[in-house]
Design goal:
The structure holds two protein chains of two kinds.
Chain A (H helix, E strand, L loop, with lengths): L7 H4 E5 L5 E6 L2 H30 L6 H23 L1 H8 L5 H5 L2 E5 L7 H9 L1 H4 L5 H10 L6 H6 L1 E5 L29 H13 L5 H15 L7 H4 L4 H10 L2
Antiparallel strand pairs in A: 1-2, 2-4, 3-4
Chain B lengths: L2 H25 L6 H24 L4 H17 L7 H18 L1 H24 L10 H8 L4 H8 L2 H21 L6 H23 L3 H9 L2 H23 L6 H32 L7 H21 L7
Helix pairs in contact in B: 1-2, 1-3, 2-3, 4-12, 4-13, 5-9, 5-11, 8-9, 8-11, 8-12, 9-10, 9-11, 10-13, 11-12, 11-13
The chains are: A alpha+beta, B mainly alpha.
């Protein structure tokens, strides 16, 4: 039930700051990293395809004037540079200029950082991206995948050489904090107030906020799992014996916290 | 304090910090003024305080995770490494590259040995059986040599030099960078690339000699060959440095050796990039031209001498 305990419990990494606090960040998983790579490769491939088609169309002109020759040659040169660039420059330039992000990584909220938490320098970026032919691209990608699976901080060979990590920057649902908690129980003597730990409270409200977007089957399953997790906390109150359906039970619980 | 009231009380500060960080991340710290930076550091300290509080009271919440990320982001801006400056680039080329090469001279020599073995085997393969040339050379080059003609004439008269030079240097840089990255395959890919390129050169030499073209081929490669081969050997050496860190890390753990050696090896690989651009331009513009032979030979020797003198003898004074 990785959706119930926060996912970062299992995939976090600890970094030390000069302020003497340990930072815990969520290491990106294999799935999102693969997806980010696929997005980046598709983007490169799309640009190459467009330029290739343009080159082909411009070079096809029969008139053989010096102008068509010039455009065809310029386009061919650009195409060669783009092919080279997509293999060796795309990742390097983006991760350097965008502080550890490529378009694919930005879309999936991933970022490359140094293993000590500092931002990547251009030489780190160079080290991790020049090694891509050996552990990311084509059939060699299998090696990178296995490395990300097997290593503790999900580092492929290039990450080990550059001492970098890919982290996931979580988006937070702030709307759950907007409502001012005032248990309705105060006005209703029969319903007792229940104290939840902050993480349980947050979990409950995140579920209630998100449930509309879930598939009904997932929605039921999560509700049941949540009830099972939270039921021991209401021992001795009327909620313990309540026969409400899981979701209604959770709504009722939320009103008393 | 409940989680909800904690968030409601401090979130404005976090949001302010987020917008300031977004600004500084996009524009760089030089575009900010003193009050901006003072407010940034004040907000950073306040947020680390919030993080400490949340760590005690709100374990396991996404709010805590958010604060971790926000503090990390702010920390990254406050303690960021130096941006790439002109002086850093100058230091990189004047000191760090030659120093890295001298440190790893042994690996470069091994790289040269593998390359020479390739040449030797290429020559003896053609000596043994001329048909073996077909395993590495494409047909149009073979047919051209058999008829006693240089293949370069037909290629460079069709393809304009700017296009040809771009193609040549991009493919050569790809080989050089792959030779470096190949170190991560325990040097297997590196050794294979070096051997293959040497073998091809050996085959061409011997085959051209058999058909009376040795003079023509030497004239063709005189201008660009020395620096091109030097660059491939240096990048092969960079690959072997990485391979050695994996195979024989010495007193360090494999990960530490890899990180440390990779850092200096990549400098050698970067050194090859501008050199191969120059070599590619000479190969397309000057080598097939009708410029006098002495000019091509002088140019080739001069560039080769500059490259090796730069790598072996410059940047010796300690780095300041």
């Amino acid at each position: 039930m990785s959706t119930l305990t926060s996912t970062w419990e299992t995939s976090r990494t600890e970094l030390e700051l000069p302020e003497e606090i340990d930072l815990q960040l969520e290491v990106a998983n294999v799935g999102s990293r693969t997806l980010a790579i696929l997005i980046d490769i598709t983007l490169c491939g799309f640009v190459l395809l467009v330029v290739y088609m343009l080159t082909f169309l411009l070079a096809r002109d029969e008139t053989q004037s010096w102008l068509t020759d010039l455009t065809a040659n310029t386009m061919t040169t650009i195409l060669i540079l783009l092919i080279f660039g997509s293999q060796w420059c795309y990742f390097n330039l983006f991760e350097w200029v965008w502080n550890g992000q490529t378009p694919g990584k930005r879309l999936l909220h991933l970022r490359v950082i140094k293993a000590d938490g500092t931002p990547v320098s251009w030489i780190d970026v160079l080290l991790r991206n020049l090694s891509r032919p050996v552990d990311t691209l084509g059939p060699m990608g299998l090696i990178g995948l296995l490395m990300i699976f097997a290593s503790r901080k999900a580092q492929r060979l290039g990450d080990l050489m550059a001492r970098t990590l890919v982290i996931h920057e979580t988006e937070i649902d702030w709307s759950i904090f907007d409502q001012v908690e005032s248990p309705t129980a105060a006005t209703d003597k029969a319903r007792s107030v229940i104290r939840l730990a902050p993480d349980q409270w947050e979990l409950l409200h995140r579920y209630l906020n998100r449930r509309e977007q879930l598939q009904s089957e997932v929605r039921q399953r999560l509700a049941a799992a949540l009830v099972e997790k939270l039921k021991p906390l209401v021992k001795g109150t009327d909620l313990d014996l309540s026969t409400l359906a899981p979701e209604e039970w959770l709504i009722e619980l939320a009103q008393r916290t | 304090m409940t989680l909800g009231s904690f968030v409601r009380k401090h979130r404005p500060g976090w949001q302010k910090l987020e917008t300031m960080l977004a600004f500084i991340e996009a524009r760089g710290p030089s575009r900010t003024d003193r009050p901006f930076l003072q407010e940034l550091t004040a907000l950073y300290r306040a947020t680390t305080g919030d993080l400490a509080y949340a760590q005690t009271h709100f374990r396991g919440t996404t709010v805590l995770l958010f604060l971790h990320q926000l503090v990390a982001r702010a920390h990254n801006q406050i303690y960021r490494p130096h941006r790439l400056s002109l002086r850093a680039v100058e230091r990189f080329f004047r000191k760090e590259i030659p120093q890295a090469l001298r440190l790893h001279l042994q690996a470069v020599i091994w790289s040269a040995i593998v390359f020479l073995m390739g040449i030797a085997l290429g020559i003896s393969a053609v000596q043994f059986d001329e048909r073996s040339a077909s395993i590495i050379l494409p047909n149009h080059i073979l047919n051209s040599i058999y008829s006693g003609q240089m293949w370069t004439g037909s290629i460079f008269s069709v393809v304009p030099a700017p296009v040809a030079s771009t193609f040549l240097f991009t493919s050569n840089i790809s080989v050089a960078l792959l030779a470096f990255a190949g170190g991560l395959s325990f040097g297997i890919i590196t050794a294979w690339l070096l051997f293959q390129n040497g073998f091809m050169l050996g085959v061409i030499f011997k085959l051209c000699a058999n058909y009376g073209l040795l003079g023509a081929v030497l004239e063709f490669i005189a201008g660009h060959g020395i620096i091109e081969i030097s660059a491939i050997i240096v990048s092969g050496g960079a690959g072997f440095v990485v391979a050695q860190a994996l195979l024989n890390p010495g007193a360090y753990s494999r990960g530490d050796a890899l990180a440390q050696q990779g850092r200096s090896a990549v400098r050698m690989a970067v050194a090859c990039v501008p050199v191969l651009v120059i070599a590619g331009c000479i190969e397309a513009f000057i080598s097939p031209s009708h410029l006098p032979v002495w000019f091509k030979i002088t140019l080739g020797l001069l560039l080769g001498a500059i490259f090796w003198l730069y790598l072996l003898f410059t940047g010796k004074r300690s780095v300041r």
